[in-house]
């Protein structure tokens, strides 16, 4: 990291208006730096239009032809083709736009983009039904339903692929990024820096820190980006080529400073974001309640009960039962392979700590030689992780077939038995051995939910993560759990297992 030991205090900027700039209500300021969303939005428009047109084409081909005995009905008329392949896809674009599905604030990260597409699909379905009823148009319900559902699925899939391309571009090439200036005290700005750089896929790149408490707070300290103080914020933004200012934490004791900064940014095309000191709390738990011009952030309690939690339990039991039945040939084959590799039991049983501190015996396929526990004491100095875990990349206690089982995560499949008995869940924090400590402090909060076969820790790096980072991810899951989040983690698990990331 570069070290910044010298800084020249700049004179105060000349007096200038701080109450906004006159501008037309019909025009918006052009962004001078980050323009990635413009070609990306054009690409989404083309993909959405194509997806809706393809869904209409397939629906007409499958249902209209079949309903007419393979004779060409009205779908050969020019007006029908114009409606099905042009007007309906254009209607999709209008409704998607009206629902904010092209708003750059929701593109590329989070679930808001997909939620808006889903809401738009409901609006399109209602609009088509109303128009057909009002005009007394005789339409095939199957073809219309297939076209609408098919368009929704294809649009969601196309946007998912587009998001993957965007993430790859950001991670590998640093493209499509927003350059940020962090404004606040040194601890506040460094905390925000750590949070936004933790996910390169978000496309937020801090390029400078502007200290509100003076440069002396950072003198002689190593900082990841240049530190400034005493400069005009807008001048600094232009100097470093940024397009976003992040107002970190309290940033200033003066109540009106944030408002005046927002006034200064009007008409400049520069974004202003506020990063309050609420770390690892997901958006659905945070609501803004304005009272007399004061925006209060209301933070709700974690929802680890109710109908969603009941649905999770039912999904766990049903999926575990079906999984054990469907995977029984594979489980049998793995057991035979273990027996051939090393004489001994096919399964490994160990006491783990579960929900509310209750212990249970976890089921796993054995991947180590039978004398692995006896050899552990002599290998403690080989540990490559911190915290309550013992991990060695090339552990000599693992036999060849066991190494494959670990890399592919097939050794975890017997834990479906624990899920079926209600001791574990499909998604949750990984269960830790019962003899690894008392789970004091923050770690104990993991016990509020049942441990899982997979979890946020596993899809974010697995064994490559430090203990502190693993605990942070587990606590984030506990505090922000939702059924949709579980499904998202299950989907991400497939990619992680196929790529064998962090498994050893």
- Order of adjacent strands in the largest pleated sheet: 3-2-1-4-5
The helix content is: 40-55%
SSE string, helices as H and strands as E: HHHHEHEEHEHEEEHHEEHHHEEHHH
Q: How many helices does DSSP assign?
A: 15
Biggest β-sheet description: 5 strands, parallel
Q: Summarize model confidence as the mean pLDDT.
A: 80
Uncertain spans, ≥5 residues at pLDDT below 50?
1-18, 66-73
| Radius of gyration of CA atoms, rounded to a whole number | 28 Å
Distance between the termini: 31 Å
Secondary-structure-derived class: alpha/beta
The geometry reads as globular
For the structure shown, list the relevant keywords.
single chain, 504 residues, alpha/beta, Rossmann fold, 5-stranded parallel β-sheet, two-stranded antiparallel sheet, 15 helices, disordered N terminus, phosphotransferase activity, for other substituted phosphate groups, membrane, transmembrane, transferase
Task: Offer a concise description of the structure.
By secondary structure, this protein is α/β, with parallel strands linked by helices. The chain has helices spanning 37-67, 78-98, 112-135, 141-173, 186-197, 233-240, 257-265, 307-326, 328-341, 372-376, 400-408, 416-420, 456-459, 467-479, 483-499, and strands spanning 178-184, 204-211, 227-229, 244-248, 271-275, 286-291, 294-299, 347-353, 359-365, 425-427, 452-454.
Description:
Residues 1-18 and 66-73 have low confidence and may be disordered. This protein has helices spanning 37-67, 78-98, 112-135, 141-173, 186-197, 233-240, 257-265, 307-326, 328-341, 372-376, 400-408, 416-420, 456-459, 467-479, 483-499; strands spanning 178-184, 204-211, 227-229, 244-248, 271-275, 286-291, 294-299, 347-353, 359-365, 425-427, 452-454. α1 runs antiparallel to α4 (141-173). β6 (286-291) and β7 (294-299) form a beta hairpin. The chain is built from 15 helices and 11 strands. The strands form 4 sheets. A 5-stranded parallel sheet has the order 3-2-1-4-5, with helices on both faces. A two-stranded antiparallel sheet has the order 6-7. A two-stranded antiparallel ribbon has the order 8-9. It has 3 domains: 37-173, no CATH class; 178-277, Rossmann fold (3-Layer(aba) Sandwich), CATH 3.40.50.720; 307-499, no CATH class. By secondary structure, it is α/β, with parallel strands linked by helices.
